[in-house]
Specification:
This protein is of the alpha/beta class. It has 2 domains: 4-212 and 378-382, Rossmann fold; 221-348, Aspartate Aminotransferase, domain 1 (Alpha-Beta Complex). 29% of the residues lie in helices and 14% in strands. The protein has 11 helices and 10 strands. It has helices at residues 4-10, 37-43, 92-95, 115-128, 173-183, 221-230, 258-267, 307-321, 341-346, 350-357, 361-379, and strands at 20-24, 48-54, 72-74, 78-82, 100-103, 132-136, 189-193, 250-253, 273-280, 292-299. A 7-stranded mixed sheet has the order 3-4-2-1-5-6-7, sandwiched between helices. Strands 8-10-9 form a 3-stranded antiparallel sheet. Strand 6 (132-136), helix 5 and strand 7 (189-193) form a beta-alpha-beta unit. Helix 4 (115-128) crosses helix 5 and helix 6 (221-230) packs across helix 8 (307-321). The two termini are 14 Å apart.
Length: 386
C-alpha cells in the first residue's frame, strides 16, 4: 500500500514542481520508511517549502489537549503557523506568497478529532485566496465502511464538528474534505493524491505498519478503536484516562467501585467488548495524583463493537450508580463558551437530556438512524476507493 506521500516520493514530487508550498502537517506524518513528510518536502530540490502550518498538539505532536499552540520556527528557518490557538484559520498574509497548500494529516476517523477541521478551515482560507490545494490521502484507521453515531444539529457546530457528519464517518480525510467542499459550496481547487492499494474495509492493523503517534493521548491503534465513544467522557467529571499510559481505554474516578461498575456494565451485554476492573493514578488532568477506581475497556470483536453506543452505556451506568457524584462538565470547552461540552460532542442536547430522563441507549440510537441513512447516501459519490 502507498499513501499520498509515498506516491509523491515515488514520482519525485512532480505535481508540485516549481511551486512555493505551505504544508499543513505534523512530525508524525511519515512515508512508508518513517521519514517525516516535512523532511521529504524540505529536501525536494524541485519544491520550495515556504511555510508550515500546525494543527492541535502542534507541529511536534507534543502538546496536550486544548493547549493553545503559539507560532514557532522549524529547524531555525521555516515559520510554523499555528492553527490551534488565538487563530484557528491561517491569515491571508500567511498564504500570500504561496502557490499551493499541501495537507498531510492523520485523521483517526472520528468527528471530534480536530485535524480534519483544521484542514477544512485551511481549505476555506486557501479557496478565498485562489490557492491550489493538494491533499495527500491516508487510510481511515477505523476502516472506510462503518458509519456510526449522530450527526450535528444546527446550532451545535464547534471545533469538534464544524459540519454535520456522524461521529464515525467511515471516510478518508480527502474524501471527507472534498465532500464538504462540494456540499457547502466552498469551491476550492483541490487535487487529491490518492492512496494505492487500500481496501476500505481494512482497519489500520491490516497494514502491518507502525502506528506513528499523532497526539499525546492517541498512543496506539487500540486507543483510536475506542475513542469514538470514550471521548464522550470529556463532557463529564469522569476521567477518560488522560495522565495514564492507556488514555480512553482506561476510565474512572475516585468515587467509583470498579467491581460494582463492571457488574453493572456486564449486565448490559454490550456487543464486542468487555471490562476489566482497574485502579489508576493520573499524573495530570482530572484527579491528578489521586487513586481512581474504574475499568479498562477491551474490544474483543471490533466488527460488532459500536464505540459511541458503548460510551453512552458507560455514562448511563456511572450516572445511575453514582447520581450524587457524577456531573456534566461545564463550558468552556474547545473554544465554545455557551454550549455544554457533552452536547457539542454529541451534536445535540437531546442525548444528554434523554440520559437524564432514563432513556435507554437503543431508544436514543433509533432517533439518529434516519440521519445516518441519509449521510450514507450522500457520501457514496465521494468515495475514492473500493
Amino acid at each position: 500500500m502507498l499513501t499520498g506521500i509515498d506516491r509523491c516520493v515515488r514520482y519525485d514530487f512532480a505535481p508540485f514542481r516549481g511551486m512555493r508550498i505551505g504544508l499543513l502537517s505534523a512530525i508524525a506524518c511519515c512515508d512508508k520508511n518513517l521519514t517525516p513528510t516535512v523532511s521529504l518536502f524540505a529536501s525536494a530540490r524541485s519544491v520550495k517549502l515556504e511555510a508550515l502550518f500546525a494543527p492541535e498538539h502542534g507541529f511536534h505532536a507534543a502538546g496536550q489537549d486544548q493547549v493553545k499552540i503559539p507560532d514557532s520556527v522549524y529547524r531555525g528557518a521555516t515559520r510554523i503557523h499555528s492553527t490551534y490557538g488565538r487563530k484557528r484559520k491561517p491569515s491571508y498574509a500567511a498564504l500570500n506568497d504561496l502557490d499551493a497548500i499541501v495537507i498531510d494529516l492523520h485523521d483517526i476517523g472520528t468527528r471530534y478529532y480536530t485535524f480534519v477541521w483544521s484542514a477544512m478551515l485551511m481549505i476555506k482560507a486557501a479557496a478565498a485566496r485562489r490557492k491550489k490545494i493538494f491533499i495527500l490521502d491516508r487510510p481511515n484507521p477505523l476502516n472506510g465502511v462503518t458509519v456510526q453515531g449522530p450527526l450535528i444539529e444546527r446550532g451545535f457546530e464547534s471545533f469538534v464538528g464544524l459540519y454535520s457528519v456522524p461521529v464515525r464517518h467511515g471516510m478518508t480525510i480527502a474524501e471527507l474534505c472534498t465532500m464538504l467542499d462540494h456540499v457547502h459550496y466552498i469551491d476550492a481547487d483541490i487535487t487529491v493524491v490518492r492512496i494505492k492499494g487500500w481496501p476500505r474495509r481494512d482497519y489500520f492493523d491490516a497494514r502491518h505498519a507502525p502506528w506513528t503517534v499523532p497526539s499525546p493521548n492517541m498512543p496506539r491503534f487500540s486507543t483510536a478503536l475506542v475513542y469514538p465513544g470514550m471521548c464522550l467522557l470529556e463532557g463529564t467529571n469522569v476521567s477518560e484516562g488522560r495522565g495514564t499510559t492507556t488514555p480512553f481505554e482506561m476510565f474512572g474516578a475516585p468515587w467509583i467501585d470498579p467491581l460494582c461498575l463492571a457488574r453493572e456494565l456486564r449486565k448490559k451485554d454490550i456487543p464486542g467488548c468487555d471490562f476489566r476492573p482497574a485502579y489508576f493514578i493520573p499524573v495530570f488532568h482530572k484527579y491528578q495524583d489521586r487513586l481512581c477506581g474504574g475499568l479498562q475497556l477491551h474490544v474483543r470483536q471490533r466488527n460488532s463493537f459500536d464505540p459511541f453506543s458503548a460510551g453512552l452505556e458507560i455514562i448511563r451506568a456511572i450516572r445511575g450508580l453514582y447520581p450524587r457524584e457524577f456531573a456534566w462538565r461545564q463550558p468552556p470547552y474547545e473554544f465554545e463558551r455557551d454550549r455544554m461540552p457533552f452536547d457539542i460532542l454529541c451534536g445535540n442536547s437531546w442525548i444528554r437530556e434523554g440520559i437524564e430522563r432514563g432513556t435507554t441507549v437503543p431508544a436514543l440510537r433509533r432517533r439518529w438512524q434516519a440521519d445516518l441513512t441519509r449521510f450514507r447516501s450522500l457520501r457514496r459519490k465521494y468515495l475514492l476507493y473500493a
